[in-house]
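Tokens as discussed.
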């Protein structure tokens, strides 16, 4: 009888431990709050780098030169490819969207779609040529041509030993005049993270 009672108590104890170890707690946080769990590139890094680099781009001489040469007309910018050359899987599209959002929020440049989104827009125009009423059909050949293209890469270096590592990220961006191929701005932003397990 004593053994049966001990086995029952042990079974309950094991069950309680398993249930408590399997429970998960989820807490909602502000999207602007910086939380770094893994030490990997995250949404805070993307947002911070995009905002700082866009501010730097817009504070550079190329913008005032363009405005002076074009009677105050805002430059049209397209954000091109930002390649992930880091050791991690980084969704570069999130970073591109953060850059585009910052450009739009400042109101200092005009932004046009690039890449797959531009292809989708052109496919929609092509479909309208056949399926839309003539009065609402959008015509080909009336897009705003970009004056400049922003391109770049995300790179990383990892230095690790035993349970410690330092992850070094560098985002490089270049703004190029599409007409002349002249690089009018080049910059980088570095982030270093120390991770101890």
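Sequence:
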């Amino acid at each position: 009888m004593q053994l049966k009672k001990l086995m029952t108590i042990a079974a309950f104890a094991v069950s309680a431990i398993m249930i408590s170890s399997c429970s998960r707690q989820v807490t909602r946080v502000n999207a602007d709050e910086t939380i770094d769990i893994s030490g990997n590139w995250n949404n805070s890094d993307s947002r911070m780098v995009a905002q700082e680099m866009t501010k730097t781009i817009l504070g550079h001489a190329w913008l005032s030169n363009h405005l002076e040469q074009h009677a105050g007309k805002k430059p049209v910018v397209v954000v091109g490819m930002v390649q992930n050359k880091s050791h991690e899987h980084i969704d570069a599209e999130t970073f591109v969207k953060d850059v585009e959002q910052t450009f739009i929020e400042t109101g200092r440049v005009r932004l046009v779609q690039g890449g797959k989104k531009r292809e989708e827009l052109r496919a929609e125009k092509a479909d309208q040529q056949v399926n839309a009423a003539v009065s609402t059909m959008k015509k080909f050949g009336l897009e705003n041509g970009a004056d400049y293209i922003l391109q770049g890469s995300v790179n990383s270096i990892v230095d690790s030993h035993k349970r410690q590592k330092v992850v070094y990220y560098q985002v490089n961006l270049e703004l190029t005049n599409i007409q002349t191929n002249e690089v009018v701005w080049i910059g980088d932003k570095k982030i270093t993270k120390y991770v101890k397990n």
